[in-house]
Amino acid sequence: SYVLTQPPSVSVAPGQTARITCGGNNIGSKSVHWYQQKPGQAPVLVVYDDSDRPSGIPERFSGSNSGNTATLTISRVEVGDEADYYCQVWDSSSDHLFGGGTKLTVL
Amino acid sequence: EVQLVQSGAEVKKPGESLKISCKGSGYSFSSYWIGWVRQMPGKGLEWMGIINPGDSDTRYSPSFQGQVTISADKSISTAYLQWSSLKASDTAMYYCARLRSSSGYYGSLAYWGQGTLVTVSS
């Protein structure tokens, strides 16, 4: 079955750039989606199909996907971006699949 | 405005049955697949399965096949997740979510319910 690997945590200072990775075998051939989940809230889609943003999501959120790694990039990080972030793909052997999640801490 | 509204929190005993709901509004309910996602306390998101409300075609994650039943009633725009015999390990938050696109059963989940907390304890 397919496996998605995310770092458990990423820390960044306000105003800097955060990069959260999602690793998988040849993930570059798949569409990757990213969700933000703040404590006590439902997840929110922030990037879909590797690099598209839903309406209402700031341009500071961007995505890329190549080879064995997809990346969610958050520019000019704000304290309000502190949350758990999950990547998700669809795979023919595993169906829909989430990564283990990454806790973003804004120092 | 697309909305998914889930039923309220439940407290059950092991062995009891349960059916929770997810009511969609603001869009053509039959046209978009709806998925269910589990989040155990302090843990990550787990995919459970997905249903096409239009024809009730359902796909389960292998981890949840046989453990839960997903269904839908398009006449009242509502999807369901049910258990026949709950276990303590079923204690979790359960989310329903709608696919962003109507073109298939895969893709991103653009709209989420608020979650239903299920607590199973003797």
Features:
heterodimer; A: 107 residues; mainly beta; 6-stranded mixed beta sheet; 3-stranded antiparallel beta sheet; 0% helix; B: 122 residues; 7-stranded mixed beta sheet; 4-stranded antiparallel beta sheet; 11 strands
Secondary structure elements and their pairing?
The complex is a heterodimer of chains A (107) and B (122).
Chain A: E1 9-12, E2 18-23, E3 33-37, E4 44-47, E5 61-66, E6 69-74, E7 83-91, E8 95-98, E9 102-106
Parallel strand pairs in A: 1-9
Antiparallel strand pairs in A: 2-6, 3-4, 3-7, 5-6, 7-8, 7-9
Chain B: E1 3-6, E2 10-12, E3 18-25, E4 34-39, E5 45-52, E6 57-60, E7 69-73, E8 78-83, E9 92-99, E10 109-112, E11 116-120
Parallel strand pairs in B: 2-11
Antiparallel strand pairs in B: 1-3, 3-8, 4-5, 4-9, 5-6, 7-8, 9-10, 9-11
Structural write-up:
- The complex is a heterodimer of chains A (107) and B (122).
- Chain A is mainly beta and 107 residues long.
- Chain A is 0% helix and 46% strand.
- Chain A has no helices and nine strands.
- In chain A, the strands form two sheets. In chain A, strands 1, 3, 4, 7, 8 and 9 form a six-stranded mixed beta sheet that branches. A three-stranded antiparallel beta sheet of chain A has the order 2-6-5, with no helix packed on it.
- Chain A is globular and about 40 Å long.
- The model of chain A has no long low-confidence stretch (mean pLDDT 96).
- Chain B is mainly β and 122 residues long.
- In chain B, 0% of the residues lie in helices and 50% in strands.
- Chain B is built from no helices and eleven strands.
- In chain B, the strands form two sheets. In chain B, strands 2, 4, 5, 6, 9, 10 and 11 form a seven-stranded mixed beta sheet that branches. Chain B has a four-stranded antiparallel beta sheet with strand order 1-3-8-7, with no helix packed on it.
- The radius of gyration of chain B is 14 Å and the shape is globular.
- Chain B starts with a strand and ends with a strand.
- The mean pLDDT of chain B is 96.
- Chain A binds chain B through residues 1, 31, 33, 35, 37, 42-45, 48-49, 54, 84, 86, 88, 90, 95-101, and chain B through 35, 37, 44-47, 50, 59, 61-62, 95, 97, 100, 106-110, 112-115.
